[in-house]
Amino acid sequence: MSSFYVTTPIYYVNARPHLGHAYTTIIADTLKRFYALLGMDARMLTGTDEHGDKIVKAANKENKSPKEFVDGISHEFSTLWKDLKIDYDQFIRTTDPEHKKSVQTLLQKIYDKGDIYYGEYGGHYCFGCERFYTEKELEDGLCPQHKTKPEYISEKNYFFKMSKYQEWLKQYILDNPDFIRPERYRNEVLAMLEGNVLEDLCISRPKSRLEWGIELPFDKDYVCYVWFDALANYISALGWGNSDDLSKFNTYWPAEHLVAKDILKPHAIFWPTMLKAADLPIYKHLNVHGYWLVKDTKMSKSLGNVVDPRFASEHFGLDAFRYFLLRDMHFGSDASYSEEALISRINSDLANDLGNLFSRVLSMNAKYFAKEVPALGELTEEDEQIFASVDNAAQNYIQLFKEVRFSQALEGLWEPIRLMNKYVDSQAPWTLFKEGKSERLATVIRVLLENMYKISVLLYPVMPESSQKMQVQLGKVFSLHAKLLDDLLSCKVHLRTGASIAEASNLFPRLEKPAENPEEKKQNTKNAKQKKTKAKEENADTALIEFADFQKLDLRVGTILVAELHPDADKLLRFEVDLGEEKPRQIISGIAEWYKPADLVGHKVVVVANLPPRKLRGLVSHGMILTAEKGEHLSLLTSSAPNGAKIS
Ligand code: MSP
Description:
By secondary structure, the protein is α/β, with parallel strands linked by helices. Strands 1, 2, 3, 4, 8, 13 and 14 form a 7-stranded parallel sheet that branches. β13 (about 255-260), α10 (about 265-275) and β14 form a beta-alpha-beta unit. The structure holds 5'-O-[(L-methionyl)-sulphamoyl]adenosine. 5'-O-[(L-methionyl)-sulphamoyl]adenosine (MSP) binds near residues 10, 262 and 298.
C-alpha cells in the first residue's frame, strides 16, 4: 500500500492556540483523510515547539519553570485537537527524549561531514524572532517583524555551511516546479536565492546565555538553535536518528509539509539544505498558505482579535466550521474571518444547497416509496447529465485536492449539487406522482439518491461527521479501502433497491445571527461604551445644532402622579405624569439608582413629549423625563409652571 505523510508546523507554546493554528491543523487532517480515501496509508503529525528564549521569557512571566510552563500549553494544544476531532497519529514535543536524540544525531552527522564549523559572529539579534539579522535586513535599524531594536551580540558559535548548498537548492527548485507551492512563494524563495549570497546559519547558542535547549553533541557549552531543533521534528517523529528501527521513516518519508507564509524561509531554505547535508531525501512539497485576518489585520493577542476555534466550532458546528475555512480561504492568499461571512457561507452552501437537497429528496422518498430505495429504470438525457456532472466534478475535485486547492475543489463540487436541486424542480416528482408515472418517479428519485451518495463520500475529508450522517441516511456507510474511489466513480449504482433509508432530516440548520462569545461580548460592550463617551466628548466640543432642530423638541412641564419600581428591571422606574392632557402619560425612566419612587410623587418635572413610544422591558414609555447629570450626580429638571406648559 502506498503511503502519505502530512505535517503541521509544531506550534510555539508561548501563546495559546487560535484560529490560525486550527486552520493549518484542520487542513492537515483533511489531507490525511483525503489520501486515506484514495486508499493510501495516511499519517499525520503535529506537535509543539518548546525550546528557545521566547519560551523561557514566557515561563518567567508566569513564574513557572520552563518545563512546567511548556507542559501546560502543550496540553492545551493536544486537547484542542482532540476536541476538534483531529485524526492525528502523533503529537511530537521537542522536549521528548527521542526528539532530542534525533537532533543530536543530525547535528553529529552534518558535523562529521565537515558542514558545521566554529566561528566568531557579531550580529543584530532579535529575541522575538530568535535569530540574527544582517544590517541589510533591518528596516530603519529595527527588526522587520517585531519593529523593535535588535541587540548587537558578538560571540563564538557554530555555523552550518548553508551557503554551500545555495546553487543546489536553486536548481532543485527550478527542476521541481511545484516543490514550493503556490507559485508566488516559489518565486519569493527563488528571489531570495538569486539576489543574495546565502549566509551560513548560526546553529548554536552559548549556554551562558540560554540553557533551555538541546545540547550540541560535540560541545557541551552550547545548545542547539531552536529552528534547527524544531525542523528536525518531521523526521525524529518517524524514528530517524533515535532508533534502530527505520521502518516508519522508510514508509512515510518524504513528507508533505503545511505552513503559513510566516515561516517560509526556514522551511524553504534551512530545511532542504539541512536534509541535503545529512544525505536524506528532500520533502515532497512545501504547501504555503496565507493568513486568516480579522477586519484586515492579522490576529494577535495584543490586539485582542484572536478567534477561538473551540467556541466557533461548538457554536456553528464542527463540520460547518471546517467547510467554511476550507471554502473561504484560497490556499496561498490571505482570507478574512468574520461570523457574518461564516454564517452566510453556511446558510448558502450547506443549508440551502446541500441540506435542502437531502431533506427534499429524502422526504419525497419517504412519501412516495415508504423510505425504500426505488428501482432505477431507463435513463433520460437529463438523468445522464446528472451522473456526468457529478463524475466530472469528482475528477476535478480529486485533482484540485492533490494540488491543495481546497476552495476551488469545493466550489466545483457544488455545481452538481445545485444542478440536482434544479433537476428536482424540472423533473417535478410531485407531478409524476399525481400523474401516476411511478416508474419514472422511481428513476428520478434513484438518480438523485445515487449521486447524493457519491457526494457524501467525496465530502468525507472536509466534513467527516456529516459525510457519515448522510451515508447513514442513505442506508450505506462506506469503509476505507484501496479501490474505494475507483469503485465509486466507475459505477452508477451503489445503493440496493429496496434497502430502507431515512426520513428527511435537517443536516445543516440555518444560522440566524452571529454568536457573541462571552469574551468578545465584554470587549464589544467596552468598545461601544468608549465610542459613546468619545462621541459625547466630540459633540460637546464641536456639534452646534440649528435653531430649527431645537424647535422640533416638545418640552413640557408635568406632575408625577404615580412612581413605582419597574416590575422587570432594577434600574428603571415607572411613572404616570400629568402633562395637562386627557390622560396621564406612562413614562419609563432609568433613574432608580438616584431616587426612591415614593419621594417623587407630586414633583414637577420637564418631559420630552414628542418622542416616539418605546418599549422598555415590556412597558411602553411615552416620553422622557429630563435630568441634569454631572459625574456621579443626577437630578431632575423641575419647573413651577403649570402642567402642560411648553418650554421654548
Ligand atoms: N514553532 C514555529 C514552527 C516550527 S515548525 C518546525 C512557529 N510556531 S507558531 O506557533 O508561530 O506557528 C506558526 C504557524 O501557525 C503558521 O505557520 C500557521 O501554520 C499558523 N498560523 C498562526 N497564525 C496564523 C494566521 N493568522 N493565519 C493562518 N495561519 C496562522 O512558527
